[in-house]
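Service request form, structural biology core

Requester: graduate student, group of Dr. S.
Request type: structure prediction, single chain
Budget code: on file
Notes: please return the result as structure tokens.

Sequence provided:
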Amino acid sequence: MLTYPHIDPVIVKLGPLAIRWYALAYLAGVLSGWWLIGKLSKRLTPPTLSKGAYDDIMTYAIMGIILGGRLGYVLFYKPAFYFSHPLEILMVWHGGMSFHGGLVGMTTAMWCFSRKYKIAFLAVTDLLAVAAPIGLFFGRLANFINGELYGRVTDSTLAMIFPYSDGLPRHPSQLYEASLEGAVLFIILITIALCTRTLTRSGRLSGYFLIGYSIARSTCELFREPDDFIHFLPSWITMGQLLSLPMLAVGFYLVLRRVTPRPSH
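Core staff response, request fulfilled:
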């Protein structure tokens, strides 16, 4: 069995101000993704994003992720509690974000963004699709540092005892997710983007991301402990697996549809 490293979630504390690894993970994901989006945009002629659009895109994305992630958690995971305590919805510092809700929120934000700047919607989502696994990678590492969203009980040699669990050895499922949803998915998508002409076919990279994420998430859910207020759904399916099914269907549609190529360098 491996030893959990017990990393302090707070990097530094200056009076009432505490800088946490979780916040740094979000910042690293946003800045890295923003830089990559700018580089990929310039591979098309003309570039997908103008200077003004490039400056604005992450503002839209962040707002969509935060609002969608919070509302998704409220609606998908604990609707009864939050409808009984509506003020708790605003207390995001208590935790509770949903990736699938964040995806819906970011998609909505990108639709508004593409309308404002008169850019093809799927051309915008393709750029974000390649960058998204970077944020997922850092986010899952932050989950591991926080000792949250840990895995199921196991006798595997990879098992760890997490500080806020029941003291039983469990899978470090956060690291599995960081690897599959983050590193592996990013390597696949960036390779496709740089080594093929897929970036010129609007929607393809978005489709590959949706397919890749849904498969990675559903696989990792086999090792992750379901939320204690939901447990398993019928037939031992988890909420994460159920919410990934529509992503898989939309992903295959985007990949298989006919697309007219756009010019590139």
